[in-house]
Specification:
The structure holds 2 protein chains of 2 kinds.
Chain A lengths: L1 H31 L6 H17 L8 H25 L7 H21 L14 E4 L2 E4 H23 L1 H11 L1 H6 L4 H23 L10 H15 L4 H21 L5 H15 L5 H4 L2
Antiparallel strand pairs in A: 1-2
Chain B lengths: L1 H19 L3 H26 L7 H19 L3 H23 L6 H19 L1 H4 L5 E2 L8 H22 L2 H11 L1 H6 L4 H27 L1 E2 L1 H4 L2 H15 L6 H17 L1 H13 L2 H12 L1 H15 L3 H4 L1 H7 L8
Antiparallel strand pairs in B: 1-2
Classes of the chains: A mainly alpha, B mainly alpha.
Chain lengths: 290, 334
């Protein structure tokens, strides 16, 4: 029973971070209707920002305040100069924007490789290996802090989307672009802001993950895969769904690692992905209608 | 008439090439080029003509390669038989996959294909007893010379391009294009869109699997990270088609040539140009530059994708008129 509870706790803590990754992805998906296949690479970049700051003595959690604005700017640049110009271009494949994000992801990975080489980097902090106990269950200090901050960001994101003008414009654009344009929303600018926000959110996830994970240029790919599994689980474009999806994936991965073995961790995610496609093609969105 | 002439001339040149060129290195590049024609063209049939963008063609390529390798490993059957089977097995992988994904709309197929490629790679790595895991499979190549492989690759390339040309000019081919252009309209005209998407996927998977099996025969060694590689196969297949021209018959051929040349230029550091400069001038800047260029081919690919999508969204063949107009200053109107 303890093993089960321990796995459950580990899964939920990890799921909080995954939710943060997924919300960024699903926001972009909802507003632009494209999958951002450079999502994990953006996170990788944020982790390197954290790493560089850490060598200068900045705490990983404080580097949130640097990495998020930086990635926000990068997201704006990507959307404004690389993705938005494609909307006007006449092409055979509508997926050109998705392919563009693949190219962006490759460039980001390789730039990181040039700058930091392929070696695994670690961030050592006082609390990375600290744990505290609650009954028989151990909680990793770093993951618990990360979970708390992730929750705070998610809540802030919801407040932003539900209560502010900009947030409402984003939701309107996601629901019906033409209608939003007619209501006076500058949808072009909204897409730019959304990509920036999505990047900033995944940057936050990167900073939170950095103390408990190792950093290398190729980690972008697997995390992009996780991000899209989360969005499919939750339903494309659904923010609430992304939270469910993130926690489900976190749980499934840690259950898989505990009961099947570490090497099955990645397979579990893919298996869930196929099952959702088979039995619940709309994801959790279909069940909850949010 | 003139239009049909270029492919025939190209074909004659390709057929006679091994008589003129004896360099093994050059023949190796040509075989890679021919393999990429096959893979790029089959990706193009599915994505360019049917509109279903796949991010997982490495799955079909790898399954084809593993079919040939495993047949030899477990049953001692000549891997050449695997070539015939490789395509069919790849098709059998593709069919249930298509049956799951194609009824769904939107980005599902693209995402699911990405998951398929990655998933099969994990399975091939984990199922060590069956596939050899990370150790991979090694076989002795049948021929020591590269010429037989060259002709087999050439035959495969010709067959695949021809078959795709025939298909796209037949009724199913028009169905494919109608699905790409407007799925609702196609369905309302009575086209079974799921069925035809599946047919397109099967043909595409078949040729890609054949290419994979040939790769096994030719290279003699495979492991999961080589043949199921996302960047080296799935993304490269997309690049070949995009650079050459999506939705055109000869686009992937042009794209394959450009991409193989591009890769090789980077891999050899502009054919040793930087090494030569470094030696000639003795300056350490060129040595580091040469080292950087060696590693930069993926970066180069990434930049190439971005540039091509921004400026030549229909590829070299698709935007040929535009290139003629802007680069060569030829105005067809006057």
């Amino acid at each position: 029973m303890d093993v089960f509870l321990q796995t459950l706790v580990a899964g939920i803590l990890k799921g909080g971070l995954y939710a943060l990754i997924g919300i960024g992805m699903t926001l972009i998906m909802g507003v632009m209707g494209i999958i951002n296949l450079a999502h994990g690479q953006l996170m990788m970049l944020a982790m390197y920002v954290t790493f560089v700051l850490n060598t200068m003595g900045v705490d990983p959690y404080l580097s949130l305040f640097v990495a998020m604005p930086l990635l926000f700017l990068l997201g704006i640049v990507i959307q404004k100069f690389l993705l938005n110009p494609l909307i006007k271009v006449e092409t055979i494949l509508p997926e050109n924007q998705v392919l563009m994000t693949v190219g962006i992801g490759m460039v980001l990975t390789e730039i990181a490789r040039f700058a930091f080489s392929s070696d695994y980097k670690y961030i050592t902090t006082k609390y990375a290996n600290q744990t505290f106990y609650f009954g028989n269950i151990s909680f990793s200090m770093a993951l618990t802090i990360a979970f708390g901050i992730a929750l705070a960001f998610t809540a802030a994101m919801f407040w932003f989307l539900l209560k502010t003008d900009l947030g409402r414009s984003i939701r309107a654009t996601a629901q019906d672009k033409d209608a939003a344009t007619l209501m006076g929303v500058n949808t072009g600018r909204i897409t730019v802001v959304t990509f920036g926000l999505g990047s900033a959110l995944v940057a936050a996830a990167g900073c939170l993950l950095a103390p408990v994970y190792y950093i290398f240029p190729d980690l972008g790919g697997p995390f992009t895969a996780k991000a899209f599994i989360i969005t499919i689980l939750g339903g494309l474009g659904s923010t609430v769904g992304a939270i469910f999806g993130g926690v489900t994936l976190g749980l499934a991965e840690s259950m898989g690692a505990t009961y099947f073995g570490m090497e099955y961790e990645d397979i579990v995610g893919l298996a869930i992905f196929i099952l959702v496609l088979l039995f619940l093609p709309g994801g959790f969105k279909r069940l909850t209608k949010v | 008439m003139k239009k049909n002439l270029y492919p025939l001339v190209l074909l004659a040149v390709l057929a006679l090439l091994p008589l003129a060129v004896k360099s093994n290195y050059f023949l190796h590049l040509m075989i890679l080029f021919l393999l990429w024609i096959v893979i790029g063209s089959s990706w193009n049939l599915l994505a360019g003509f049917t509109g279903q963008v796949s991010f997982g063609h490495a799955a079909f390529f790898g399954v084809g390669a593993y079919t040939a390798g495993l047949l030899f490993q477990h049953l001692q059957v000549s891997p050449w038989w695997g070539m015939a089977l490789g395509g069919i097995v790849a098709m059998l992988i593709g069919l249930p996959f298509g049956a799951i994904c194609f009824p769904l709309r939107g980005a599902y197929f693209a995402l699911a294909s990405l998951a398929l490629g990655e998933g099969i790679r994990h399975v091939a790595t984990i199922a060590e007893r069956f596939t050899g895991g990370m150790m991979g499979i090694m076989i002795m190549p049948t021929f020591t010379s590269k010429v037989p492989y060259y002709y087999i690759a050439l035959a495969l390339a010709i067959l695949s391009v021809l078959s795709i040309q025939v298909i796209t000019r037949s009724k199913p081919g028009y169905y494919f294009v109608s699905i790409r252009e407007d799925q609702d309209a196609a369905a309302s005209l009575g086209i079974n869109t799921t069925l035809y998407k599946n047919i397109s996927l099967s043909i595409s998977a078949f040729w890609t699997g054949m290419a994979g099996a040939l790769y096994m025969n030719y290279m003699g060694f495979i492991d999961p990270h080589v043949v199921f590689s996302l960047h080296d196969y799935s993304v490269m297949a997309i690049l070949v088609a995009i650079v050459g021209g999506v939705g055109t018959i000869y686009g992937p051929t042009v794209g394959a040539f450009i991409m193989v040349a591009f890769q090789e230029i980077f891999r050899t550091g502009f054919f040793g140009f930087f090494d030569y400069l470094a030696k000639a001038t003795g300056s350490s800047t060129f040595t580091t530059l040469s080292g950087a260029v060696h590693q930069a081919h993926v970066l180069g690919f990434g930049i190439l994708v971005i540039v091509v999508i921004l400026y030549l969204p229909n590829g070299v063949v698709g935007d040929w008129e535009k290139i003629k107009r802007n680069v060569f200053r030829i105005n067809p109107a006057g």
